[in-house]
Design a protein that fits this description.
By secondary structure, the protein is an alpha/beta fold. It is 40% helix and 20% strand. A hairpin with a 2-residue loop joins strand 1 (2-5) and strand 2 (8-14). The longest helix is centred in the middle third of the chain and has 18 residues, at 94-111. The protein starts with a strand and ends with a helix.
């Protein structure tokens, strides 16, 4: 499924984010940037040690923030590492921090002249954010950013499961 916002496209796909050839892929990182499981581990394994070497130099990233590194052996040019919130109950600024993770990532992409970016579903794995709630926050944040900023041609959400893809498609249809 696709939607247009200004001159930008939002695209949804099921797949493996490490195979994306967009200018940047986004890593759902932890605040210490030390690698981990899920998307984070897969990106570090596929991209090689150059990514971790740059993460060590950077040192860390707060929830809602983002940093950029090389993509190592990945097809993408850069990896943007963002830290989503750990979901508690939805009453501890989780939505604000999650939206900030998307905004921060998109701003870094624009600042570095990157035209296309692929996101996973941030915070919905080990961090426990409910997928439908996360999809709504993510898509609203991306639509808002694209409505107010130029420079990004394509934002792709690369989702791990058919169920996540269906959820994101339903939310995107509702919002556009």
């Amino acid at each position: 499924m696709e939607a247009k916002v200004n001159n930008s496209r939002i695209s949804l796909a099921r797949g493996d984010i490490t195979e994306e050839a967009t200018d940047a892929i986004v890593n759902a990182a932890n605040s210490r940037l030390i690698g981990g499981g899920g998307v984070d581990g897969a990106i570090h394994r596929a991209g090689g040690p150059e990514i971790m070497a740059e993460c060590r130099k950077i040192g860390g990233c707060p929830a809602g923030g983002a940093v950029i590194t090389t993509a190592g052996r990945l097809k993408a040019k850069k990896v943007i590492h963002t830290v989503g919130p750990i979901y508690k109950d939805g009453k501890h600024q989780e939505a604000e921090l999650l939206a900030s993770a998307y905004f921060s990532s998109l701003k870094l992409a624009v600042d570095h002249g990157l035209k296309s970016i692929s996101f996973p579903s941030i915070s919905t794995g080990a961090y426990g954010y409910p997928v439908e709630d996360a999809a709504e926050v993510a898509l609203k944040a991306v639509i808002s950013f694209l409505s107010a900023n130029k420079g990004i041609d394509l934002v792709r959400f690369v989702l791990f499961s058919d169920a996540d893809l269906k959820t994101y498609a339903g939310v995107l249809k509702k919002l556009t």
